[in-house]
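Example for tutorial group B:
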């Protein structure tokens, strides 16, 4: 089992913990599932991409379950699998998401917007609900992590439906952190920006045609980072999720961890002012 990135060698940050990763078959989810397993976690990959998900789960010594997060029963089944397999649930990364419903608000198709919300927002609601139930019943001081986006922080980065869903996740995270903290359960978000993944690649291809990962990575590095051409990767997001899942983040809850190379913090076009 390999992981592309600067891996910590201790391999024990999640030793013995049980984790579910929704949308875990590829992209950010797959990178996180691998990193969690490398750090000692027992990982359930939950996705609708059965072949990819099953192959990944087998490669990391985990389990796979078909899970359409729009369906509450599917998410509940993933939690039940964790309890049947290892008797507990310590971590869930509510990562499954889709993009789409592009175009003007004046021509918005409500069925398309509803589809985005069903996956991106209500899928997260299902994950928090059933993970929290299992953690409370098991007296587990667990970690619930939700994937939001820089699109929740800066307008114009994505479709209206996607933007709405990702900003709502941050509000939901803060609200549930208030409720669940009394049980010792932490709820946080990771918010990536411009990470070359299958979903981002699909988005670029809608506008630029047959473009590859290297080209997308170059565009992101040049346009969406303060770090001198250093773009983000799915592994960057996985490391952020690992931190929030670990006991090292034991006093962090209600927090949105932005992984964007500084994009949302400052205007990169002003850098020339500081150069001699």
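The residue assignment follows.
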């Amino acid at each position: 089992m390999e992981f592309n990135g600067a891996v910590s060698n201790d391999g024990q940050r999640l030793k013995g913990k049980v984790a579910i990763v929704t949308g875990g078959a590829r992209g950010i989810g797959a990178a996180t599932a691998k990193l969690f397993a490398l750090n000692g976690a027992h990982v359930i990959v939950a996705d609708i991409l059965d072949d990819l998900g099953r192959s990944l789960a087998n490669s990391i010594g985990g389990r796979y379950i078909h899970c359409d997060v729009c369906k509450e029963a599917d998410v509940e089944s993933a939690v039940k699998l964790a309890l049947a397999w290892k008797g507990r649930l310590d971590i869930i990364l509510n990562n499954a998401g889709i993009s789409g419903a592009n175009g003007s608000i004046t021509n918005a198709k409500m069925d398309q917007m509803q589809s985005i919300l069903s996956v991106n927002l209500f899928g997260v609601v299902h994950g928090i609900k059933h993970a929290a139930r299992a953690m409370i019943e098991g007296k587990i001081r667990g970690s619930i992590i939700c994937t939001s986006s820089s699109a929740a922080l800066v307008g114009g980065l994505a479709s209206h439906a996607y933007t709405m869903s990702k900003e709502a996740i941050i509000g939901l995270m803060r609200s549930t952190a208030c409720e669940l903290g009394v049980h010792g359960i932490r709820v946080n978000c990771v918010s990536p920006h411009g990470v070359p993944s299958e979903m981002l690649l699909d988005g670029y291809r809608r506008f630029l045609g047959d473009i590859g990962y290297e080209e997308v990575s170059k565009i992101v590095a040049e346009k969406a980072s303060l770090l001198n051409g250093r773009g983000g990767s799915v592994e960057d997001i996985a490391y952020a999720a690992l931190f929030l899942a670990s006991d090292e983040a034991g006093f962090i809850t209600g927090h949105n961890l932005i992984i964007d190379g500084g994009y949302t913090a400052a205007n990169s076009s002003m850098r020339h002012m500081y150069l001699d």
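The domain at 18-193+233-260 is CATH 3.40.50.720 (Rossmann fold). Compare this with the pattern of hydrophobic and polar residues in the output above.
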